[in-house]
Amino acid sequence: MTDTAIPTIYKGLAGVVVDTTAISKVVPETNSLTYRGYAVQDLAEHCSFEQVAFLLWNGELPTETELEQFVQQERANRRADRSLLQLVAKMPDSCHPMDVVRTAISYLGAEDPQEWDNDAKANREKSLRMMAVLPTIVAADHRRRHGQDPIAPDSNLGFAENFLNMCFGKVPDKEIVKAFEVSLILYAEHSFNASTFAARVVTSTLSDIYSAVTAAIGTLKGPLHGGANEAVMHDMIEIGEPENAEEWMRGKLARKEKVMGFGHRVYKNGDSRVPTMRKAFLDVAEHTGGDKWVTMYEILERTMNDATGIKPNLDFPTGPAYYLMGFDIEVFTPIFVMSRITGWTAHIIEQGESNALIRPLSEYTGVPQRAVGA
Ligand SMILES: CC(=O)SCCNC(=O)CCNC(=O)[C@H](O)C(C)(C)COP(=O)(O)OP(=O)(O)OC[C@H]1O[C@@H](n2cnc3c(N)ncnc32)[C@H](O)[C@@H]1OP(=O)(O)O
Ligand SMILES: O=C([O-])CC(=O)C(=O)O
């Protein structure tokens, strides 16, 4: 290459393979997604979220004894220190719950004397602690915004049930718990998405796991990534009634505006996780009398497909499903964090085990070199 030749620019790193991973495989041609070799649909049908977390971190599904131990450790780590709960309580009412979650993880790093211990075993333990305590933080913040006191974690309840109980003061019907748990499993991991890549970049400098997760949370917050599940529901509320949906969608497309919850960088013919989450959403809607949102969902999906061929991504069905479960819209992306913490940390551990500083190149397009005062 001569000095003047312009190298090929891969804007947004689209299509660039930057490293290997043994954690998950996305195959857009067949719309498939596997975690450690297991189809995500299979995991969603047969496994608990705790089993999937163990799988992502350890490479294999747990035996009965391993699961028992793992579940015990998770339950033992759910309590948030008084200082952490006080920090959450002091966060401005106007801030987004993702800011609370990001701050809480940063605080956990600051108070961990072993923050710099990046050994894989130490990082697996820290990952489990973060996974266990995050629901306590998210639920306490959810209740605070309703003027309610936090509910302590209940070690007799599974991960999903306990979170729902801490938010709403009771465990909902099993249909709702199942749909919620399915969403956690589907959200857990998705190869080199933007937030996971951010976590890997931080890890590649030999920084600590809390810093990497904090960066990942900040990355997930954006509406082109995890924040889309909230945007979907804001849009649906703006649409109001199913009869307005087609015109609303056509207007957005005519103005060349992005419709949140549609499209994907990797899947061009549909997101592998949508059929499973769509079914979970339909189950929740049937159970809660949410037919109107199902009709609106179908009209939006059909209109978008007819006009552009662009298909929904996972954030499209999770938005209305979480809404019907009773969550405030601003809690949707923090729930994504509660799940994706497992995938992020699996990648942080993998990056640490085979590290190379991540530092791409750029093509300079500014003014040529000049002298001060010339
Ligand atoms: C869990 C997740 O993070 S899933 C993703 C969640 N994000 C969203 O739902 C946000 C909405 N979707 C989008 O913005 C995009 O589809 C992305 C960012 C997710 C992926 O997009 P990219 O691969 O970068 O493709 P890009 O944004 O360039 O889109 C390609 C074309 O499809 C169009 N397109 C893609 N998605 C959408 C959409 N949601 N609404 C309208 N048009 C869209 C673009 O306008 C563009 O059209 P053009 O070629 O005429 O300019
Ligand atoms: O893979 C991506 O780019 C975004 C996504 O679907 C995810 O992170 O789950």
TrEMBL record:
Pathway: Carbohydrate metabolism; tricarboxylic acid cycle
Gene3D superfamilies, per database record: Citrate Synthase, domain 1 (1.10.580.10), Cytochrome P450-Terp, domain 2 (1.10.230.10)
Domain of life: Bacteria
SUPFAM superfamilies (UniProt xref): Citrate synthase (SSF48256)
Keyword Transferase set for record: yes
MF terms (GO), sorted A to Z: 2-methylcitrate synthase activity; citrate synthase activity
Keyword Transferase annotated: yes
Coiled coil: none
Pfam families reported in the protein's UniProt record: Citrate_synt (PF00285)
Reaction it catalyzes: oxaloacetate + acetyl-CoA + H2O = citrate + CoA + H(+)
UniProt keyword annotations, A-Z: Acyltransferase, Transferase, Tricarboxylic acid cycle
Family that this chain belongs to: Belongs to the citrate synthase family.
NCBIfam families per the UniProt record, alphabetical: cit_synth_II, PRK14033.1
The protein's name in its UniProt record: Citrate synthase
